[in-house]
């Protein structure tokens, strides 16, 4: 039996929301084939739509998955090279279960699979992924007597048209620099901007060549070092805005006309404002490490802010329960009810462009009221005994006046002037700190005090 099919490996690569591992040693075509068959069996899927990113191993794995799904009796629709939100569009618009082969922002040595039910509903560990893993481990062969048909279908143009129908960009012409990081936005951005038209937006492309070896920088825009090239180019071009996408283009980060980084919380607040203007009184989801400015602005606009745990399966489930119109995460994921509650970096980018085109203000001025409080960003620390550190933080802050503690996701400690959250990683011996204060000095003091506890010799 291949090492990739061992119980130890399967438990390592089946994550909370997807499957991800090192190509060859942890994930290969044989495993992809078996996952395809198990996926069909667990979901009872009659048709599966399959897309893949630009990593060298992705086409072969997608093909193996398709063969496994067909052997299990499902028809398969191959959409070829795609962004993850393009796969969600195909799942939603065609009404089929879906599989996307990508390792998102991870380095070139990795690959993975994101799975969804018809209508882009997520498949996570609590909603089918564990059953798929266990079926693969059991080695049960497909029982269907029928072999499904495998066909191809190009959805790129329909995807671009749908996004622009949800966030039409009208007004003054814009100059836009976009950094695809050699990822899938190199395919999707040209399709969207061509439809938008040169009279509305001039696109300056950066690293649009599809290359899963990531020769320029990692396709992970949450790390500031991966945005330096975009910041410089925005200033050189005198552009109105810069867009940075991750490898599978389901996340988007902004750079303003001054080359400054824009917090995803700020973009969350802007999009929430826009969506509430269309649907007054609507519910907006935000995760618990999003800036306080988000629920404040939602409330000011007459909306209903709902706080949730970090992670797309929690966001999407809460959106379904509450009928929320929009959800945002501080990691750069943005979820839209009218996009099957799925996340789309390109749709978030179009909302930013639409808001900017409607005003004569530069982006920095437009966003000023949405960025009210300094944030630390996520700070990771390697900690062997995570529980002991969290216990010490509870003891340190529990009896302080004006302080509240909650454990919705990790430990959140809140005061009228500041808050911080410390969460353990699901996959690594890390504690993740996010902090915010009413001003820079307050944020720095809180951040440093918590880091002292986290990083003290134990």
Automatic annotation (TrEMBL):
Cofactor(s) recorded for this entry are: Mg(2+)
Q: Which UniProt keyword terms apply here? A: Isomerase, Magnesium, Metal-binding, Phosphoprotein
Family annotation (PANTHER family):
PHOSPHOMANNOMUTASE
UniProt-recorded name of the protein? Phosphomannomutase/phosphoglucomutase
Please report the organism this UniProt entry assigns to the protein: Nocardioides jiangxiensis
Which residues belong to any copy of the Alpha-D-phosphohexomutase C-terminal domain? 378-451
Domain Alpha-D-phosphohexomutase alpha/beta/alpha span(s) in chain numbering: 13-136, 158-259, 266-373
| UniProt key word Phosphoprotein | yes
């Amino acid at each position: 039996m291949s090492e990739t099919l061992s119980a130890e490996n399967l438990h390592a690569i089946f994550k909370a929301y997807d499957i991800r591992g090192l190509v060859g040693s942890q994930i290969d075509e044989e495993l992809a084939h078996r996952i395809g068959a198990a996926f069909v069996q667990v979901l009872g899927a009659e048709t599966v739509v399959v897309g893949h990113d630009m990593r060298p191993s992705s086409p072969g794995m997608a093909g193996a998955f398709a063969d496994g799904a067909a052997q299990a009796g499902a028809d398969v629709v191959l959409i070829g090279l795609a962004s993850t939100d393009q796969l969600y569009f195909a799942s939603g618009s065609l009404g089929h279960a879906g599989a996307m082969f990508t390792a998102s922002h991870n380095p070139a040595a990795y690959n993975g699979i994101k799975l969804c039910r018809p209508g882009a509903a997520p498949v996570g560990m609590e909603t089918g992924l564990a059953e798929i893993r266990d079926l693969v481990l059991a080695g049960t062969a497909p029982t269907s007597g029928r072999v499904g048909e495998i066909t191809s279908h190009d959805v790129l143009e329909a995807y671009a048209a749908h996004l622009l129908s949800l966030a039409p960009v009208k007004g003054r012409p814009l100059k836009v620099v976009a950094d695809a990081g050699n990822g899938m936005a190199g395919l999707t951005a040209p399709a969207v901007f061509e439809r938008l038209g040169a009279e509305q937006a001039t696109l300056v492309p950066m690293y649009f060549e599809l290359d899963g070896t990531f020769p320029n920088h990692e396709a992970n825009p949450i790390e500031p070092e991966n945005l330096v090239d975009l910041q410089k180019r925005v200033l050189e071009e005198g552009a109105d805005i810069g867009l940075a996408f991750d490898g599978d283009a389901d996340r988007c980060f902004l750079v303003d006309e001054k080359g400054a980084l824009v917090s995803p919380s700020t973009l969350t607040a802007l999009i929430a404002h826009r969506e509430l203007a269309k649907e007054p009184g609507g519910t907006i989801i935000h995760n618990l490490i999003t800036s306080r400015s988000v629920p404040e602005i939602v409330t000011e606009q007459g909306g209903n802010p709902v706080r949730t745990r970090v992670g797309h399966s929690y966001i999407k489930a809460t959106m379904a329960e509450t009928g929320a119109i929009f959800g945002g995460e501080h990691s750069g994921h943005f979820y839209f009810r009218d996009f099957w509650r799925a996340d789309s970096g390109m749709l978030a980018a179009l909302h930013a462009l639409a808001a900017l085109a409607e005003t004569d203000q530069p982006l920095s001025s437009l966003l000023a009221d949405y960025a009210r409080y300094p944030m630390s960003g996520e700070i990771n620390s390697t900690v062997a005994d995570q529980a002991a550190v969290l216990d010490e933080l509870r003891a340190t802050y529990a009896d302080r006046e004006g302080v509240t503690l909650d454990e919705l996701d990790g430990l959140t400690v809140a005061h009228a002037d500041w808050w911080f959250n410390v969460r353990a990683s699901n996959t690594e011996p890390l504690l993740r700190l996010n902090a915010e204060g009413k001003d820079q000095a307050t944020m720095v003091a809180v951040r440093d005090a918590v880091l002292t506890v986290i990083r003290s010799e134990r």
